[in-house]
Amino acid sequence: MITSPSSLRRSERSRRATLDAALELCTEKGYNRVTVEAIAARAGVSKKTIYRWWPSKVGVMLEAFTQVLVGVTPFVETGDIAADLRAHINGLVRLLSTPPYGPAYSGILSEMHHDEELARAVREQLVTPRFEAAVERLRRAQEQGQVPAGADLPLAVELLYGPVYYRHVLRKPSQDEATVAALVAHVLRSLTAGAPPADAPEGSPGRVPGQGRVS
Description:
Residues 35-54 bind DNA. By secondary structure, this protein is an all-alpha fold. The protein has a domain at 55-194: Tetracycline Repressor, domain 2, CATH 1.10.357. It is built from nine helices and no strands. The longest helix is centred in the middle third of the chain and has 28 residues, at 116-143. The chain is elongated. The relative contact order is 0.10.
């Protein structure tokens, strides 16, 4: 069966309307009160259409949140890794502090703790791609001499972004720009202080066995 361009456009409009409806309802009702029925009614699509594309409400929310996150927090490159990291982390903090995105992500995290399939989807669709993009941004900075050659880039990503999600999950106050600036400066200093020479063998002082392979 060949799908016509008009059918593809209708499908994309329906998909976009569904994602928008899910986020709108999350703002209005709170994550737990949003249902597939409500999303379908708001989007003007059938429940059958939603279940053809997503396995559940949380599947809709995950795609909606991921698309917004990727759109508003790109990994830009101005030539100043510290400035770029500050801009990126501040963008992430603002997103998680703004309804419906913060509540939607909290709902997703809550459900993934007792749903292994969802946990896998979160890792594959959201966490791993963003983690790899952050490592790649640091790698380019490393090539430009802004990050030491022997620095553990995956660990650096965890040090930079861990505090953001820690505060979000525990519902602590979000970082302000001064706190983010201090975090970025501290992590970059730690990379310079702790990085062994690029050609240092495994087991030498300052090099952790298996460095660079943080899961």
